[in-house]
Amino acid sequence: MGKSGKDNGKSEKSGVDGEGAGDYYAAWSKDVRECEEKYRVSREKGLSGDDVEKRRQIHGLNELEKHEGPSIFSLILDQFNDTLVRILLVAAVVSFVLAWYDGEEGGEMEITAFVEPLVIFLILIVNAIVGVWQENNAEKALDALKEIQSENATVIREGRRISNLPAKELVPGDIVELRVGDKVPADMRVMSLISSTLRVEQGSLTGESEAVSKTSKPVAEDVDIQGKKCMVFAGTTVVNGNCICLVTQTGMNTEIGKVHSQIQEASQSEDDTPLKKKLNEFGETLTAIIGAICTLVWLINLKYFLSWELVDGWPRNFKFSFEKCTYYFEIAVALAVAAIPEGLPAVITTCLALGTRKMAAKNALVRKLPSVETLGCTTVICSDKTGTLTTNQMAVVELVAMGSKENVLRSFTVRGTSYDPFDGEIENWPTGRLDSNLQMIAKIAAICNDADVGKAGHDISGHYVANGMPTEAALKVLVEKMGLPNELSSGPSSGHDGILRCTCKWNEIEPRIATLEFDRDRKSMGVIVNSRTGKKSLLVKGAVETLLARSSFVQLLDGSIREIDESSRNAILKSLHEMSTSALRVLGFAYRDDLPEFATYNGDEDHPAHELLLNPENYSSIESKLIFVGLAGLRDPPRKEVPQAIEDCRTAGIRVMVITGDNKDTAEAICRDIGVFGPHENISSRSLTGKDFMDLSTHDKEMHLNQSGGLLFSRAEPRHKQEIVRLLKDLGEVVAMTGDGVNDAPALKLADIGIAMGITGTEVAKEASDMVLADDNFSTIVAAVGEGRSIYNNMKAFIRYMISSNIGEVASIFLTAALGIPEGLIPVQLLWVNLVTDGPPATALGFNPPDKDIMKKPPRRSDDSLISPWILFRYLVIGSYVGLATVGVFIIWYTQSSFLGIDLSEDGHSLVKYSQLAKWGQCQTWQNFSASPFTAGDQVFNFDNPCDYFQTGKVKAMTLSLSVLVAIEMFNSLNALSEDGSLLSMPPWANLWLLLAMSVSFGLHFLILYVPFLAQIFGIVPLSLNEWLLVLTVAFSSNFN
Asked: What are the Cation-transporting P-type ATPase N-terminal domain coordinates in residue numbering (predicted)?
């Protein structure tokens, strides 16, 4: 397999045996005979079997390389390359070891201890599965690219014509015949045309909006890919004509092979999304904090499991308690579990998934979840023109007819932007009262036309599509908007279910009997028809200049014929110039009534006139002495909603850059129409071709891209698009890139957000993208950006909520260790709070309504912190209170019989002094200490060993601490409704989902309290009414913090 060639737009590998692999040959700039000599082949005989075998040894098969993706094992390992995940993994392993140790000791809580590590392991496994599944889909773009390749080819070898040769067996130097409908199997030099014309649809590779005419004549060596008129490229399609070609490049050396390499390169350089970067930074910070707190806890409690005596100033007689060491190690693990928001990945995924559903309702189909959030910080949208900013449907926008005098023209504005005949109308149109001149224009546009218009799909709601040349389809739509004269409008017309009623009527009245095919020399197409007068008429359409050159007369509006003079010619050329400078494609219409050679011709091949039609060289003479009747200006019009979307981007601080393969004049006109540029703005410094941009120095490129406002890059190739995206990312921009063709795939892969077109987009573009537009509409991107910003704000809300909850848990455990009191919250309880209890409110915060001015603010910087210093300070204060409240209620139960008038003595538990609670580890040394039995629901707790009162007996105090923690966090979720506002400015009913979620979380807490099996697992007991009053009293006051 040959390696990928340099994509410098000037040269290619020669592909000839005997030549080095590094030799290049610009076949498009050489004469056909020179190419035959270089590739050592003749078009008549083709290659010999020996030649084919030698060249295949050098260049390999004509197929794209299969890049081996990462193995499943490496993908799995990658899922653990995340700070939060690694912390969780360590915590799970340590928890498992401790659970095993407790089980060996016969502890009573071994079931509880094993639940925690198993749940953490389950979280990690699910996270890894989802990650592997997402990344395994990343290489599908390369597979889709291979489907574009042709499967078979018609080849001449050893003087014989071989049909259906597998395309992968082609080698440089092969002679290939192409016909209409064929998919081009390799990059090839056109040697000769068999038909009069050859057109190839190569827009998916080059970005051109129309099929391109090809020739066998050489072109300049330094032209861009669009300028290589004598080359056909692998993966493109022949839409008209047939020819003989010489294979110049195969496999990875073709243009599509270079795209394949660029996609592979781009996929390997994909950056993390802004959110993932922030979460990684947060994880690293969290690691440092956890490490510091765990170390501090151990230092504070070192005296409980390690003691020594000072002898001669040196520590001696060390005493170490393994049991106590293990106990405080468990506290350290509990700290890690408390500090890590285990539910955060699940809540983020849920929020992003909800966002994708909202976007899908707006025709934006998100393929990769993180893209939802990345959209929110998009600063630059690099948009393709054709099909995104425009409809990708040619439409007539101006019709010019002859007036009452030779030098007087009439101009009509035609509305509508699609192939729908009912989309728009002609302004100031004499409906039903068409004069002779307008009737002739309608007749020519309808009959001298090989296209068709129909509805896509099987139902009547489908959109209208063109079958054939887009310009010809647009002319048929024009005919329908023109209507029929009153004398012809009565009576049925067959076919097309009324879609092309007028066109069908004209074809019935004057049926076609012969066609003079379009060719590149005369630049026109003609048809001979049986006219209503009984004569044979010639109807012609084509380039205005060439028709004028062959016209001797003009038809006035009353149908009279006048000899064409200088003033009438100048008037027509002036109208042509005005339309051309507006980047319209202009077609002229003419006819001829006197055709003496065809007076008796009816399509019979034996008729003498038929011989004239067999030779295209006769067409120019037949199409002479024409009568000119009018002209029409066509273009691919902008979508109606795009100008407003461009203005919305400007208001939102998002720059729009148009990158297209189309020509500069057309692209500039569209950009002025949609508002990227002002109507009279000097855009000489804002509009460059791709080649001009690439010729700039790196510094000048960056200066160009840093300009405020919109930019245009025309005649852009895939490598140009990649370079623009890469430089923008280097400048710190968050880039959204749109595209539909194969040529767009590498840039889509490289961009922060790759956006493919759903209707016109190739499978390659869709697979390389992060998001697909179901309606191919630019305004959908703008709506998706607004949704992304809203989602990010909501994500900040639930991240703030979860982080503040975790700060409270850490504060609680830290205070427990610092004060020396028994452990108030165990890891499995913290895990339950982080995963289950906090989950519903955090998810519900994702439903917060968007701010009304969300698209009037500039995009946030991608490096903006999730939590500002002020927000961090605010939640540190709240978290400290949560810690005080949970530890405080634990102490209250042990030391007080009542609190704020709430009686706590009903269960009969013993009271102790705070000094005793803080030194509970010395219980064995206390004199006359005893603990009374107490009740909890149906259970009675007795203590044979009074010191167990601080171990198994703490179950009620633990339940109170857990319940206070849950209640505070529920009320705290209301604080997270707004980052800066209070509950007065953002009342709870602003998000009814949150109120429902709080109810669900309380319901889940009641479930584990009052279902005995679950209560045993979580080490808690039912609470009485008075105890619930205590919980709510302590928790509710947090809302005023």
From this structure: 26-100
